């Protein structure tokens, strides 16, 4: 790895439950505005959970996705392409002026085209195998967002998808950095997309007792680190970052948001859904990111926490932060923006890394809303309920996924 090559962020694209542009998303976070509400996609009468974080007013044609392409692509792919279009426009990227073999795409999704799977299974059940669409497989597979984005912009460099459950997008971002550090690419389009607010997905997570059941107050249901949390809220959307080698970005006069300086990946080797005791796998991921970035724990100012609003997960992440940062853990600003977006599963790391980058750039930490009842096991500074102005030089974003997958990125304020 050539650490003389620096990786900077030059474009952002966000499609979230509380904002369909990066600006709208960021403004909603600062105001503590949630995007969670009743599910409109299907009849939830017989379900235990009736709410989620849906993307509002999504118009695929606004992003150059034709009606024909809508029929041929699952919603998660459409979200990925839409966020990538926003990010490339934000970066003022003209693919015709860049060597296509030096542009890559690495994109994550935890579940992929589950909506397509459900529709096509219904077709099969009602009409037999001849009713299955010939496009079923390419619509369903989780790599299709990466594939469609590369087709859209003509990227012929490294191209693949990552599926590590809720750590997918953060793994994608980290691997995209490594492609640039390793001189395999000069520019990478990366992030994640998810569209899993479907009957089987909601029913499955509810059966696993992973979701909040606060049907009478959905806006207050996602409450990370609060003593009365009772599960996460399902969300959807997409987030894309344009990463570039620093000299490449300078040469084309790109605006630089921040620099990514470290990544850390680990496995729990413990359980399919629960974190390892004390969050030790997450702790090792944070330590690896710090080591790769040549940082000390006391250098970090802010952590955008995985913070899903589950009893075990929030407790484990708190313990992990304490084990890594020791006394400095109590000086850190920590927040979970899932309190306003819900949990976007494989896309969560993308929009949360974007939130972390904007926090660094603007010197404002978004809050953890719905934090009302302190938990003795979660006793750090979670920036409760109101955004906080503060100088941020170094920040981290944590993502932990089912299967024991842990991914962390360390981000620095850009300095020449």
Brief sketch in words of this structure:
The chain is an alpha/beta fold. The protein has helices spanning 22-31, 67-72, 75-90, 114-127, 136-140, 144-153, 168-181, 199-207, 246-251, 280-292, 311-325, 338-341, 348-362; strands spanning 7-15, 37-38, 51-52, 103-108, 159-162, 187-194, 237-245, 258-267, 302-304, 333-335, 364-365, 388-389, 394-401, 405-412.
SSE diagram, text form:
Layout: E1 7-15, H1 22-31, E2 37-38, E3 51-52, H2 67-72, H3 75-90, E4 103-108, H4 114-127, H5 136-140, H6 144-153, E5 159-162, H7 168-181, E6 187-194, H8 199-207, E7 237-245, H9 246-251, E8 258-267, H10 280-292, E9 302-304, H11 311-325, E10 333-335, H12 338-341, H13 348-362, E11 364-365, E12 388-389, E13 394-401, E14 405-412
Parallel strand pairs: 4-5, 4-6, 9-10, 9-13
Antiparallel strand pairs: 1-7, 1-8, 2-3, 6-7, 8-14, 11-12, 13-14
Helix pairs in contact: 3-6, 7-13, 10-11
